[in-house]
Design brief:
With about 675 residues, the chain is mainly β. It has 6 helices and 45 strands. The protein starts with a strand and ends with a strand.
Length: about 675
């Protein structure tokens, strides 16, 4: 009743192979009837800095009546014994004081605090001197525990997303060393498995850590193993589009390329393990045995601050312009060959660039063509070469008849185009005639036009056609000789009546052109032979300005001259500094078109006789053949900037009239 006793218990071990024994104390019955005891309701083994810690105390009484007694908490840092701020909860909310325990009942008390960067000692005592109420056994009136400071792990990572990368994959261990949760040794035995979890939290959760997954992080469910390690592998992807730059979606950010778009993210962990520690206090007659305490231990908390730098470059708005020639060479009246140079019409075209993705090892994959932000403009040097030839000048045309006259030969067949007199006294003139005889217009002139233009379609160009027509239409044949028509009227070469002047007529020059080519008596005196009369007079050569949109493909330098990222456009630095190079988007073409037209202009191709008027006064008359200036400025084509294409004198002859057929 009043003294302690000793008991011995025998039990089989190892499947009945061994017999062992255990001693235990027998508490005096008197103590069992009047006792106040303290045990942990819940207590963590450790905690990280700034984490909330809750210590729970269960006070039990075997007194049959309500008893009021004193209690006191002491919660201090282990290193220096200093107190820490604590909030007290439960049936008593002060650090120390009085508490009433109902007969044969219990009371719960809690202490809550933020864990410092130090181990914490917790001590709770009730009815310390055992006098109020009177107790015989005070060994269970005090609870003491040590809560270990669990160090947190802080790490930092900074990663770049280069200019040409759409996304980057990441895969790494959460920290450089594993997080550990350790419950220590059980006072008795662990009841059931050690359970818990290690949880990784993303901040922000959406819009940064895309395709997130974890490896090697199963829930904790260990058989009697109280020390657990976790260091999961985290996998996620950083997408360029989450940084307001989305070339794939045709949304381009415009910023200084040397300043990245920066976003900060964080991965941090929280977790714990727990297990029920079931033990006997050693007193056989303890009515509270077996004691059961839930012990918890946190993992080292990991905070991983991550910085992502996305570098942005979406091309320059304007490519440095190339200078093209804009002039006419030999643009003089005495030059039969003229060369035109002008800048081609601008043709806008679309470009692409190649962007890739990076795997977790930094290796490029998934190359993708994306549209360039800006359209580019194709320009090139157009040219036109005009070569004029006097195939058969009037001097040659009239040579046979003139030579026959000089030699005094009167054979009619030799006077094929004109009748020159054989008079000796008239031979001093270059081209003497007597009025009233036929003098047929004659001459053959030609020109060749070759143009080089650049077009997105391979068809015949209007520029070439218009230049050829302009040169044709600039042709002129003019003379002031007087003729007689079928109605015996005095007319000029064009068939226009001449004004009378006494017994004769006044001169009125007649001019024929390619468009106004009908002369006296309705004769076609100016005949144009071009592609309309013979298709072989026109030739065309089409060369495609080749390009390939694959990286390193075969692309003509003319494209490179107007796209970014090439030496030819003086923008190679874009490739070197920003990994930016443009390619022609598939489906677009450009052609170099070389067209050549050869034209002959024949005067009086059928050599029809045209008779001069018998009353044409003696004197000197002229015949001139020339090409007028061409006003290119009035054209709608790009070569209008060249202004005026100078004309040229092709042929000229002076005719001396002495006498008439009547005095011959």
């Amino acid at each position: 009743m009043h003294s302690w006793g000793l008991g011995i218990g025998f039990y089989f071990h190892n499947n009945g192979q061994n017999l062992r024994y255990k001693t235990f104390l027998l508490m005096p019955f008197e103590m069992l009837k009047k006792d106040i005891s303290v045990q942990a309701e819940s207590i963590p083994v450790g905690a990280g800095a700034e984490r909330k810690v809750l210590v729970g105390i269960n006070i039990k009484s075997t007194f049959t009546e309500d008893e009021t007694t004193d209690y006191e908490w002491e919660i201090i840092k282990k290193s220096d014994g200093s107190k820490i701020p604590v909030e007290y909860l439960g049936h008593a909310t002060k650090e120390k004081g009085k508490i009433t325990i109902p007969g044969e009942n219990e009371r719960l008390m809690y202490a809550s605090f933020s864990m410092p960067e130090d181990d914490v000692l917790v001590r709770f005592v009730i009815n310390e001197d055992g006098t109020s109420p009177e107790e015989k056994y005070l060994g269970n009136n005090v609870f003491e525990a040590e809560i270990k400071y669990v160090e947190s792990i802080f790490e930092y990572g900074e990663y770049d997303i280069p200019y040409n990368v759409l996304s980057r994959d990441f895969s790494f261990n959460l920290s450089k060393r594993p997080s550990v949760a350790d419950l220590g040794f059980a006072r008795g035995e662990w009841s059931g498995n050690i359970t818990g979890e290690f949880k990784i939290i993303r901040d922000p959760r959406d819009g940064l850590f895309r395709k997130y997954s974890e490896q090697n992080n199963p829930p904790v469910n260990e058989v009697r193993r109280s020390r657990v390690e976790r260091n999961p592998i985290v996998n996620f992807t950083i997408e360029r589009r989450d940084f307001r730059d989305d070339p794939e979606g045709r949304k381009w950010l415009d910023i200084n390329p040397s300043t990245p778009v920066v976003k900060n993210g964080r991965l941090f962990s929280e977790g714990y393990i727990q297990g029920w520690d079931v033990y006997e206090c050693g007193f056989e007659d303890c009515e509270l045995c077996p004691h059961k305490v839930l012990r918890t231990a946190p993992f080292n908390e990991v905070t991983k601050d991550l910085t992502f730098n996305v570098y942005v470059y979406n091309g320059m708005k304007n490519i440095p312009s190339k200078s093209f020639r804009n002039e006419i060479e030999n643009n003089r009246v005495d030059s039969l060959n003229k060369k035109m140079y002008w800048e081609s019409e601008p043709y806008n075209f679309n470009v692409i660039r190649w962007m890739c993705r990076l795997d977790s090892n930094g290796k490029e994959y998934g190359w993708t063509s994306v549209d360039g932000r800006y359209q580019r403009t194709f320009k090139q040097q157009n040219s036109g070469d005009i070569q004029i030839t006097i195939k058969s000048p009037m001097e040659v045309e009239y040579m046979q008849a003139r030579d026959a006259a000089r030699q005094g030969i009167n054979r009619k067949d030799l006077y094929d185009k004109a009748v020159f007199p054989t008079d000796i006294d008239l031979q001093r003139f270059d081209y003497p005639i007597k009025s009233g005889y036929y003098f047929n217009p004659a001459g053959k002139y030609s020109f060749k036009v070759e143009t080089v233009t650049y077009k997105p379609v391979p068809y015949d160009t209007q520029e070439h056609k218009d230049i050829v027509n302009a040169v044709i239409n600039s042709f002129n044949y003019e003379t002031d000789l007087m003729y007689i028509n079928d109605y015996r009227e005095a007319v000029n070469i064009k068939g226009e009546l001449l004004p009378e002047r006494g017994s004769t007529f006044s001169t009125r020059p007649g001019r024929l052109t390619a468009r106004d080519n009908i002369g006296i008596n309705g004769i076609e005196l100016v005949t144009v032979l071009d592609r309309n009369s013979d298709e072989s007079r026109y030739t065309k050569k089409v060369e495609e300005i080749y390009h390939e949109h694959i990286s390193g493909g075969n692309t003509h330098e003319y494209w490179k001259m107007v796209m970014e990222g090439y030496e030819e456009s003086n923008t190679l630095s874009s490739r070197d500094n920003y990994k930016y190079r443009e390619y022609v988007k598939p489906g677009q073409k450009m052609y170099k078109i070389t067209e050549t037209t050869e034209v002959d202009i024949i005067i009086n191709k059928d050599n029809i006789n045209t008779f001069t008027h018998a009353h044409m006064p003696d004197g000197e008359y002229y015949i001139r053949v020339w090409m007028d200036n061409v006003d290119l400025g009035s054209s709608s084509h790009a070569y209008s900037s060249l202004g005026t294409l100078s004309g040229v004198m092709l042929d000229e002859m002076y005719i001396t009239v002495k006498g008439s057929m009547y005095d011959d």
